Amino acid sequence: MNAIIAEGLTKTFGSGEKAVKAVSGVDLSVDEGTVVGILGPNGAGKTTTVRMLTTLLPLDSGRATVAGHDVVREPQAVRASIGLSGQFAAVDENLTGRENLWMFGRLYQLSSKEAKKRADELLEQFSLTDAADRPSKTYSGGMRRRLDLAGSLVIHPRVLFLDEPTTGLDPASRLDLWDVIRERVSGGATILLTTQYLEEADVLADRIVVIDQGRIIAEGTADELKAKVGGERIEVVVHDPDMLHRATEILQRGSGGQCQVDEHTRRLTVPSTAGSKGLVQVIRDLDEQQVDIDDIALRRPTLDDVFLELTGHKAEEKETKDDQQSADSVATQGGAK
């Protein structure tokens, strides 16, 4: 059964020549008890899609249901069935962790006693008990993220929306949050996760939807998407930057694809269908041409390769106009967590 269904979602900000189409005909389905990752760079339309599905933004066209409720006709029922954790922790810095969670419970119309009990449970679950009575402005970024996610779980939501939940976190805090997400999944939650971190989508999602410029351009499991690129990759890190051009020519010679060059890291990447034999041949050719290398490896394609192949650019951060307009629109409308 589908926990989320979206058909033909569109959203445009502005009008006339200044109009920006943030989402253009998105179709999406998420089975109950699964994690679907929406993968794409800033400006791709991920956040705008989530805000429409969570009733924070009106749809221009299309239809969507969440937990069996129509987002246009039954917005209150949708809000009562979901949890939402956005890109920025939505906590009151002047309140303690305990007070924040109590407040979220009251907003969800729990009694004061029920809200207090639920706050205590979540503080323990998210390892925040020791800091429960400190103002949240004293929390680290990872702690605020955990508090924000705890707030989205006050009512045991059937469907949880996580909009780039690990943005800005250090690696250790990101891994901690991944563990929390896995716990929710093991408990039967349905999760829609947006991310620009390729590794995050690979690790957490049962199925991945790749979105770029407001359109879905591919979807499937991580392995299915990687199979679209096919073959393996030879990666070489050249010791001398002046030898990059010569090394590129060598790698390009025996490859069926374009050699990618990162001048900053001196890293060259090229498709290979010859496996270990191709790797050995590249080593020989580089040695004959006296190109010293710091590292060389043969690896399977990654989601980064998939994204580059599909879009022609990397899944890198790039703030664009529709991000700001979407944020401004939500700010003017308000809305609860």
Please supply descriptive tags for the structure shown above.
alpha/beta; 12 helices; globular; 38% helix; Rossmann fold; six-stranded mixed β-sheet; Alpha-Beta Plaits; 337 residues; 2 domains; single chain; antibiotic resistance; four-stranded antiparallel β-sheet
Adjacency order of strands in the biggest sheet: 6-7-8-3-9-10
Q: Give the name of the CATH superfamily of the largest domain.
A: P-loop containing nucleotide triphosphate hydrolases
The largest pleated sheet is described as: 6 strands, mixed
Distance between the termini: 26 Å
Q: Which stretches of 5+ consecutive residues score pLDDT under 50?
A: 317-337
- What is the total number of structural domains? 2
User: Mind telling me which CATH architecture of the largest domain this is?
Assistant: 3-Layer(aba) Sandwich
Q: How would you sum up the global shape?
A: globular
- Secondary structural class: alpha/beta
Q: What's the CATH class label of the largest domain?
A: Alpha Beta
The number of distinct β-strands equals 14
Please tell me the overall pLDDT: 85
Helical fraction equals 25-40%
**How many DSSP H or I helices?**
12
Beta-strand percent range: 25-35%
Molecular structure report:
With 337 residues, the chain is of the alpha/beta class. It has twelve helices and 14 strands. Residues 313-324 have a biased composition (Basic and acidic residues). This is ATP-binding cassette domain-containing protein.
